[in-house]
Amino acid sequence: MTVEKMRDYLYHLPEQFAESLKMEFDFVEDYRSAYENIVVSGLGGSAIGGDILRTFALQKASIPVVVNRDYNLPAFVGEKTLFYAVSYSGNTEETLSAYRQARERGAAIVCFSSGGELEKMARLDGKPVVKVPTGLVPRAATGYLFAPLVLLLEKLGIVAGARDELGECVLVLRDIRDSLHPEIEIEKNPAKKIARELKDSIPIIWGSSGISEVAALRWKAQINENAKSPAYYHVFPELNHNEIVGFEVPAELVSRLFVVILKDRFDHERVKRRMAISRDIIKQRVKGFVEVESRGESFLARLYSLCYTGDYASFYLALENGINPTPVALIDYLKAELAK
């Protein structure tokens, strides 16, 4: 798998939303019910869409959305649960285990996958499968692994406004990629600048609870998988009650930290103040910091604008380190060992 593969995956992310908007969900009438909760089960790139759905639902839904990253389901899952099994490959063993438990407990199940064992089980059980295109890697399929999830909830009347917000995502991300794609030189390319500063450092990503927390997680995971580098994230205001104290010793290590602060104009006013004070606390101790502002009007457009910049920054960090961002050899090795 080549460097060009990941470059192309990143470039075509806006089109994933555009194509998802054409989905019909012909099974929707069979799924209208008075659910008490929604559980999204997935791992890695197949779970990030669940996290975005969770934060979107905090503002839009009257029932909770919970993301499950485990073999086992929470005890509350039952007949009043709408259960999403999300696995790009269809072979994620934790998700397959959770699917079986959801089936046993009588939950209403919808699967999102490109195929694999999950699709086979769902077809045999008479459960609907929302098919996503093959040929990607899970972390590059975030549009396909989020948009259908929220569009189905909108069809069911659980949330509102998703279609319009996804339409804005297409426009905002297309505009952003014009400034981030490889042909744009570093002086005019914010993602390239960030990657240059992140080289030979340990990235720390800070977001804000309920707004940019998922973007911070996405930055961390993309740096891990694309740049093959350690990275860590936390969120305001919680990090001001613990992590902010951890920038003293060992001084040599702290001096190699580079902090990325993800900002949104709808951050709580006290969180904005906390960001400013925290920046002042660390600025003389760490290698550096950069602030990244969201773009767009709707929640989803603003969130994905932050994620998209991080996607490109992680890609360029891989190139800075002379690494092919596409393969994930250690994950492949781990899965092979588990399969023995």
UniProtKB/TrEMBL annotation:
Cite the InterPro entries for this sequence.
Glu6P/Mann6P_isomerase_C, SIS_dom, SIS_dom_sf, SIS_PGI/PMI_1
State the SUPFAM superfamilies in the record.
SIS domain
Keywords for this protein: Isomerase
As one GO molecular function, the record gives: mannose-6-phosphate isomerase activity
Write the Enzyme Commission number(s) for this entry: 5.3.1.8, 5.3.1.9
Q: Which Pfam families match?
A: bact-PGI_C
Family (UniProt): Belongs to the PGI/PMI family.
Q: Which PROSITE patterns match?
A: SIS (PS51464)
Domain SIS residue range list: 27-168
Q: Name its GO BP terms in alphabetical order.
A: carbohydrate derivative metabolic process; carbohydrate metabolic process
* Gene3D superfamilies reported in the protein's UniProt record: Glucose-6-phosphate isomerase like protein, domain 1 (3.40.50.10490)
- Name the UniProt record assigns to this protein: Mannose-6-phosphate isomerase / glucose-6-phosphate isomerase
Q: Which residues form the signal peptide?
A: none
Q: Which residues, by range, are in coiled-coil regions?
A: none
